[in-house]
Write a structure and sequence with these properties.
There is one protein chain. By secondary structure, this protein is α+β, with helices and mostly antiparallel strands. The longest helix is centred in the middle third of the chain and has 15 residues, at about 60-75. Strands 1-3-4-5-2 form a 5-stranded antiparallel beta sheet, covered by helices on one side. A hairpin with a 2-residue loop joins strand 3 (about 100-115) and strand 4. Helix content is about 25%, strand content about 35%.
Amino acid sequence: MSAGPKLWWEDFEVGSAHEFGGHTLTRDEIVRFASEFDPQPFHLDEEVARQSLFGALAASGWHTCSLVMRMMCDAYLLDSASLGSPGLENIRWLKPVLVGDTLSVRMEVLEARVMNSRPTVGLVRSRWEALNQRNEAVLSMEGWGMFRRRPQ
């Protein structure tokens, strides 16, 4: 993180959209994440996965969420006046994420307002979509972020 925030609440304009990231998933990465956090057989065993609805080894949806979070941190959160988030909503895993898929993220600012109880904090509601290399949405989620307001 830099010496001070580059992005404050005021920098998240409603209607703005940004694309960022780029991460290609490997077999070992998918299995490693699943082994620790989501050990369902279709995330761990290629033969079982071929017999599943996915038809191939598929990353856990939670793995996909984690990758999106990392790309968000690298793209803007670590350079912002972020104060965390009260949560996510509307998480949807739209398509399987398979070995060799390259994910990127599209973020759109849906809403922004000052927090009633803390006027030095602004809330930003965003929608994030993880896209594969064919520009197909594989994940969609919405949620609020809390950011310090720019000092006067």
